[in-house]
Each structure stands twice: as structure tokens, then as C-alpha cells.
């Protein structure tokens, strides 16, 4: 029963109800997206501490990109989702953020 309620809430949130939830919807979507991004980072960049890289990717993703990634938490990660995460990871601001987080240097 709890799973059914959670899936209903996630579906509602990811299908456009997030605008009605305001900042709570944003937090929920970002949290769902972080789980997906963390798994992609761990598989695509083995040996890298995924948590700070995940934070940088989420911080540099647009709202619509976060929603697209968060959908994968419900329906499963596709190649398109993985490609989107890798694309965001390769952006200059994301790489600067990751370098700063992982190496302690400011670029």
C-alpha cells in the first residue's frame, strides 16, 4: 500500500503537478534525480566519489532536465537519461564544480 501511494505521488509530481507543490515539488524532484544521477556517475565514472559530482550535475541542470532525470527514478533509466547526465557532466561549469569538490582547487 505504501509503495502504491509513493508511486502515485511520484507520478503526480513528475507529470506536472510539481508546479502546484512549489518548492516542495522542486526538492522532491531534485532528490529523485540525485538518486538516478548518482547511479549513472558511479557506472560511467568508476573510482570517482559520486556524491560531489552528483551535486554538481544537479546544480548545473535546468528545471526541465531535473524533471526528465527524476522521471527515470519511476520508470527506469534509459540511454537518453544516461546521455543527458553525461552531457550535463561535461559542461564547463559542472566540470569546474566537480574539480573544486574533488580536488579542492578553484578553476
From TrEMBL:
Organism domain of life: Bacteria
PROSITE patterns according to UniProt: PROKAR_LIPOPROTEIN
Name the record gives this protein: Succinate dehydrogenase
Organism expressing this protein natively: Yoonia maritima
Amino acid at each position: 500500500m505504501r509503495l502504491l501511494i509513493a508511486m502515485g505521488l511520484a507520478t503526480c509530481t513528475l507529470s506536472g503537478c510539481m508546479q502546484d507543490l512549489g518548492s516542495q515539488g522542486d526538492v522532491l524532484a531534485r532528490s529523485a534525480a540525485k538518486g538516478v544521477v548518482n547511479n549513472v556517475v558511479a557506472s560511467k565514472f568508476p573510482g570517482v566519489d559520486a556524491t560531489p559530482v552528483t551535486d554538481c550535475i544537479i546544480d548545473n541542470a535546468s528545471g526541465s532536465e531535473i524533471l526528465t532525470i527524476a522521471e527515470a527514478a519511476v520508470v527506469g533509466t534509459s540511454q537518453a537519461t544516461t546521455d543527458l547526465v553525461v552531457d550535463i557532466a561535461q559542461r564547463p561549469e559542472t566540470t569546474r564544480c566537480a574539480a573544486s569538490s574533488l580536488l579542492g582547487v578553484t578553476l
